[in-house]
Amino acid sequence: MIDPKLLDDLAKRMAGSVPTGLQFLQDDLQRNFRSTLEAGLSHLELVTREEFDVQSAVLARTREKLEALERQVAELEKNQDND
């Protein structure tokens, strides 16, 4: 999930960029920007860096095991052809 502090900071920046005539709405805009950002980002199915790294490691181990099994099968097929 996205860091709530990051969302707050982004919403604050967006509200701060509103023209000066609308500055009195800044707090309300900041809350609305934050909820809009949260809703939009929740649909993206994002993962944390830690989850990504764990899955990358699992994939690397799986690939190594697959390559080892492919070598074993090739060796068995080679031995079977020689018999």
From TrEMBL:
Coiled-coil residue spans: 52-79
Pathway entry: Cofactor biosynthesis; ubiquinone biosynthesis
Name of the coding gene: ubiK
Name recorded for this polypeptide: Ubiquinone biosynthesis accessory factor UbiK
Keywords: Coiled coil, Cytoplasm, Ubiquinone biosynthesis
HAMAP family, sorted: UbiK
Chief site of localization: cytoplasm
InterPro entries: UbiK
Entry's Gene Ontology cellular component terms: cytosol
Localization annotation: Cytoplasm
General function of this protein: Required for efficient ubiquinone (coenzyme Q) biosynthesis. UbiK is probably an accessory factor of Ubi enzymes and facilitates ubiquinone biosynthesis by acting as an assembly factor, a targeting factor, or both.
Annotated TM spans: none
Species per Swiss-Prot/TrEMBL record: Solemya velesiana gill symbiont
Entry's Gene Ontology BP terms: ubiquinone biosynthetic process
Family annotation (Pfam families): BMFP
Keyword presence, Cytoplasm: yes
Record-stated family: Belongs to the UbiK family.
